[in-house]
Automatic annotation (TrEMBL):
Pfam families the UniProt entry points to: QueF (PF14489), QueF_N (PF14819)
Enzyme class: oxidoreductase
Predominant cellular place of this UniProt entry's protein: cytoplasm
Gene, per the UniProt record: queF
Name this polypeptide is given: NADPH-dependent 7-cyano-7-deazaguanine reductase
GO cellular component: cytoplasm
Keyword NADP set for record: yes
Length: 278
């Protein structure tokens, strides 16, 4: 079984030429400590200011049944935000490809294997679902709330600056979203495209300032999960809402999409949500 150090990106498969595995190997999963990127935001492990999950969909999932016949499915994974590790996306893809020529006695055996391996890599229990490729749960929907993208603003700054976030005195409860989220992979520099939803109750956010702030991630290099945590902590610090949910739905890449959400306790994202770009 392949062994990896979980404390550095220098050994990660991301950004490296990799041979696709021909056999199942749980050791291909590459965990990355969340604490490294949380520390600069003032987030302490064991005292997280949010609840949340990283929801993944894998569209290139296949294995052989007991007779050697291929089975295909779409997998949905949920990693809790309190898990000490996230899992690097390319390693996840390589791991799943190892199932392609591996025989399993049953669909449940595949689920049990995924549950065991992913929980071990993440350091916490995870949720796994295998969906049929035409499952209604994969139907395209729209983000709720009002879209910010038609605001006619001038933008000269493409790094996230919390000072763009301003509030008024009116207390509101509203849901806003934008499809202009873009960040970059911290290893390869490749663009990560997404949509972001913000639902809150508190002092009314200045919408032009909020859109400028979100556009500011355009040249920012970070993992999807940490971008969402960055947005959440900046909004909490600048706007001090009573309740807050930040959810990003990133565009699929390499057969995987990632949709992290972070929220104040008691908040959860609307379900189901699948966007046309995913």
């Amino acid at each position: 079984m392949t062994q990896h150090r979980p404390d550095t990106l220098s050994h990660a498969p991301l950004g490296r030429e990799s041979a696709y595995p021909e056999h199942y190997d749980a050791g291909l999963l590459y965990p990355i400590p969340r604490a490294v990127n949380r520390a600069p935001l003032g987030i302490e492990e064991g005292a997280l200011p949010f609840v949340g999950e990283d929801e993944w969909h894998a569209f290139e999932v296949s294995w052989l049944n007991a007779h050697g016949k291929p089975i295909v499915a779409v997998a949905r994974f949920r990693l809790p935000a309190q898990s000490p590790h996230l899992i690097e996306s390319k390693s996840w893809k390589l791991y799943l490809n190892g199932f392609n020529q591996t025989r399993f006695e049953s669909r449940q055996a595949v689920v049990d294997t995924l549950l065991r391996d992913l929980a071990h890599a993440a350091g916490a229990p995870v949720a796994v679902e295998l969906l049929d490729v035409d499952d209604a749960a994969l139907a395209v929907t729209r983000l709720p709330g009002e879209c910010l993208d038609d605001l006619d603003i001038e933008v000269t700054d493409y790094t996230p600056r919390a000072e763009h976030l301003a509030v008024g005195e009116e207390i509101v409860e509203e849901t806003l979203h934008s499809h202009l989220l873009k960040s970059n992979c911290p290893v390869t520099g490749q663009p990560d495209w997404g949509s972001v939803l913000i639902r809150y109750r508190g002092p009314k956010l200045d919408r032009e300032g909020l859109l400028r702030y979100l556009i500011g991630y355009r040249q920012h290099q970070d993992f999807h999960e940490h971008c969402v945590e960055h947005i959440f902590t900046d909004l909490m610090a600048r706007a001090r809402p009573e309740r807050l949910l930040v959810l990003a739905r990133y565009v699929r890449r390499g057969g995987l999409d990632i949709s992290p959400w972070r929220a104040t306790p008691g908040e959860r994202p609307p379900e189901p949500l699948r966007l046309s770009r995913q």
